[in-house]
Here is the input.
Amino acid sequence: MLDKFQAIVIGGGPGGYVCAIRLAQLGLKTACIESRGSLGGTCLNVGCIPSKSLLNLSDEFHKVQHLSNKGIEIGEVKLNLAKMMQSKDKAVTVLTKGVEFLLKKNKVTYFKGIGSFKSKNEISIKDEKDNETLIFGDKIVIATGSVPVSLPGIEFDEKTIVSSTGVLKLDQVPKKMVVVGGGYIGLEMGSVWSRLGTEVEVVEFLDHITPGMDKEISSEFMKVLKKQGIKFYMQHKVEKIKKDKSEAIVSTKDMNGTSKDFKTDVVLISVGRKPNTKGLDLEKVGVELDDKKRVKTNKSFQTNLDNVYAIGDVITGPMLAHKAEDEGVAVAEIIAGQSGHVNYDTIPGVIYTSPEVACIGKTEEQLKEKNIKYKIGKFSFMANSRAKAIDDVEGFVKILADEKTDKVLGAHLIGPHAGELIAEIGIAMEFGASSEDIARTCHAHPTFSEAVKEAALSVDKRAIHS
Here is the structure.
């Protein structure tokens, strides 16, 4: 007799484990399968959490070197990379164990192993010793996330040519690093190693960094990173990467066909991610994929098989942990007969560099493309009391509102704590607020959040402090 479950979630990342917990909360007998050996998926194990730990630690290392400028005299500052990595690993371990506890607390049955379809209701789980367990599920949710993409013909060795996984585990500070790709991950990790002493050069095929982000923010962001010492080579296409003993040569061509070689210790290839559907045996049961190998779903996250659903990075949309979490909750509620829903217009994106960059809703470029008339409110952190008091004044807040109704359509921030400040605008947008609603809300003084209020005031050209 097979173990029978009302719901089985394949994947224990942010989307998968959250989905499993919500299903259990709603009274369904639930199983969660994870192949990694620890829960939390890419985000917790080799993504969001370890990278944010290193971003924070490298920022502290950088700041402490310049404390004498602020009247705090200290001795020589030394980097102990091994201890820094241990601190990062400790954060990951504590959190993965925490997720395991949450599954147990909510009575979710946790299987360690690789899950694949035997039939539309039967799932095979193979452990590290290749022992097979078969379980039966009324409903199945695919939440297997994504994996890094390399360039054609170039393989990761995770030592010289590294992915976002390998760059988190370097055992010494490279003298030089070439980052291929000017997106979120490449710029975050380039920023980490730059602060620790690496000469970082970014090679990007487009004429701007952070594709899809508001162009004004993108331009300001690049200026800030250049000031921090990161070099950029835009509109350069990587032709090949050749390894030579302990270093690599990255061969590129610009838009004019001019060749340029970069000799480097480490190459970080950060050109995107692809859905992780390998080994699921989806073709065996006939689950349909789109042209980008993503699982096809309808608005209820249902595949072409009526009992099989998919969420997170394996389906269309931004590959973000919080998007997957919201989809996990929504699909659990749909399976339980409720009306789960995700508002894709209010999913924020954050880059955890210093300063942070955050965005939500529409960009100026998108509004122009759709011929939507809008107003802009901007406020610089240079005029914010809290930012001035702690000498952290780079960046600004930009709010876009409908020209007629004043409804907030989008917001784009670069500056201190931008990743936290964006939440206020997210709540405002979720409730259909106008910029005046934000402007008339009392904000504590002195706080960084006053910059959001002033930007909202600026939409109507009535900012007080600029």
